Amino acid sequence: MFKRSAALLVVLTVLGSMMSVASCSRDAYTKRTEEPEMSDTETAESSGTSDTSDAGIVPLPDTDDLLFVITRTNMAWGYQSDAVLITCRGDMYSYEDMSGPVASYREVFAYLREYAEPEGHLDLNRLTEFYNACIPVPADVKVDSRSTGNDIGQARLIFIDQETGEEITIINRGDWTMTTDDPDLLNAQEVCETLMHTFPNNDEDYRILMPGNEMFNMPYGGTDLIGTHMIFTSYDDFISFCGENGMDPEEFMDDNTLFAMQRSPCIALQIFDTNDMAGAVLERNENTLEFMISLEPQEENPLFEGKVTAAVSCHRFPIYEHGYVDENGNPWTVYSR
């Protein structure tokens, strides 16, 4: 049985070394990046609350909603994207987006919050300082930009207003650098500069694949394959196996998905014991690969009635080399004729 809380496969990892961004070297983006030394008053993490005794300090909201997002993208050598997500409670999630620009960080955050554990925790006194520096910045703050590089990518710090939900860019630099004369934004940039170099110090490396051209669901009407985890190294082998077991993948693929599947060096297939749809694929530590049940409302599909779901994803790299298991420790078997 696959539980909703750890249901089933999605591919995400933080590869900080994939992004080369101005003022932020490749070596700077690792989860081992050391933060500047902090005073005793800054290390109140163990208390679980921020010290807001100073007059005029606005306390952090008591929620686990998203507060800051640090993104890095580069399209010089194909699409590369990773991000760090920080909640109002200081929980930190980091991931590499394997979906291309299909998924938003809000979608990814929803899956990580549901299925994964935080990779680190940001000291709440420091987080309160960052939060208070960003609150005065208006959503319509006047900014400009200037060209500062070529093919070095883009690094961005986003503050999410907790009252309006609006996204306010605090720092944006790389091929183009955001400039401003606004004193509140300039102050926020100065205060939050260290946040651009703050990353979880944890052994978990998440890599996530969201719905797009690389993933789809199809029905399976048998029982013998329930619980199966298989990896195919060619599209022809995948189609042959499905045909032998009463599945027709091409009926459930559009042209773009078919194109991606045919050219993938690795296709993963997992047969659920329910007809719930897979919504994403998560890779943990290069050891665990799991499909995650969709967080979207499940709609009735007559084609799946009385059957179970076969979730399929294709990958850009030969993931079978790692010897994956699912979230329950069941191995992924490489199919060969």
Topology, element by element:
Blueprint (H helix, E strand, L loop, with lengths): L65 E9 L5 E8 L3 E7 L7 H11 L4 E2 L2 H11 L9 E4 L6 E7 L6 E8 L1 E4 L3 H10 L13 E4 L5 E6 L8 E4 L2 H10 L10 H8 L3 E6 L6 E7 L3 E6 L14 E8 L17 E2 L3
Parallel strand pairs: 3-9, 11-16
Antiparallel strand pairs: 1-2, 1-6, 2-3, 3-4, 5-8, 6-7, 9-13, 10-15, 11-12, 12-15, 13-14
Could you characterize the architecture of this molecule?
This protein is of the alpha+beta class. It folds into 2 domains: about 10-205, no CATH class; about 210-335, no CATH class. It is about 15% helix and about 25% strand. The protein has helices at about 105-115, 125-135, 185-190, 235-245, 255-260; strands spanning about 65-75, 80-85, 90-95, 120, 145, 155-160, 165-175, 175-180, 205-210, 215-220, 230, 265-270, 280-285, 290-295, 310-315, 335. The strands form 3 sheets. Strands 1, 2, 3, 4, 6, 7, 9, 13 and 14 form a 9-stranded mixed beta sheet that branches. It has a 5-stranded mixed beta sheet with strand order 10-15-12-11-16. β2 (about 80-85) and β3 form a beta hairpin. The radius of gyration is 22 Å and the shape is elongated. The two termini are about 30 Å apart.
